[in-house]
């Protein structure tokens, strides 16, 4: 299964290698910039130009949580390998670590001077890698909310 998101405000799962659409999700009000499966494979997260991050339950075929807190478009998102945290990167110059169990922002990472364009958790760690339009990469320890 392949997961995509696009300017049409939709995410889609596709059968591979056949290329048939298996499922489509709608709810964002602007373009999708990122989407990825939860490590368990039962849910996914999307990020959008509408400033939100959304969690979707595949069995319910719908959005189960909308995370708000960025002031500009969200450029990327990723799951932590444990499946309890989502990271988001925004054009507002911040990144956020969201606790999906408590449904709130746990940490806001500040330090880039321009848009944060991507974010990834390093596997099985508390370290996040961000890239920015300010032409820098940063490694962050999300336990201490500090750059490494």
TrEMBL record:
WD repeats lie at residues 25-66, 67-108, 109-148. GO terms for biological process: axoneme assembly. Gene3D superfamilies: YVTN repeat-like/Quinoprotein amine dehydrogenase (2.130.10.10). Keywords: Repeat, WD repeat. One of its GO terms (cellular component) is axonemal central apparatus. SMART domains: WD40 (SM00320). Transmembrane segments: none annotated. PROSITE patterns: WD_REPEATS_1, WD_REPEATS_2, WD_REPEATS_REGION. Signal peptide: none annotated. PANTHER family: SPERM-ASSOCIATED ANTIGEN 16 PROTEIN, WD40 REPEAT PF20. This is SPG16 protein. It comes from Edolisoma coerulescens.
């Amino acid at each position: 299964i392949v997961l995509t998101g696009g300017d049409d405000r939709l995410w889609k799962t596709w059968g591979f290698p056949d290329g048939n659409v298996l499922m489509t999700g709608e709810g964002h009000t602007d373009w999708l910039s990122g989407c990825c499966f939860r490590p368990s494979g039962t849910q996914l997260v999307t990020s959008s130009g509408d400033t939100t991050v959304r969690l979707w339950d595949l069995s319910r075929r719908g959005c189960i949580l909308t995370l708000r807190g960025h002031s500009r478009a969200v450029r990327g998102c990723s799951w932590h390998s444990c499946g309890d945290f989502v990271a988001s990167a925004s054009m507002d110059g911040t990144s956020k670590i969201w606790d999906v169990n408590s449904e709130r922002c746990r940490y806001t990472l500040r330090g880039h001077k321009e848009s944060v364009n991507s974010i990834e958790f390093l596997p099985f760690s508390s370290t996040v890698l961000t890239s920015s339009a300010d032409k820098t990469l940063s490694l962050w320890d999300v336990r201490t909310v500090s750059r490494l």
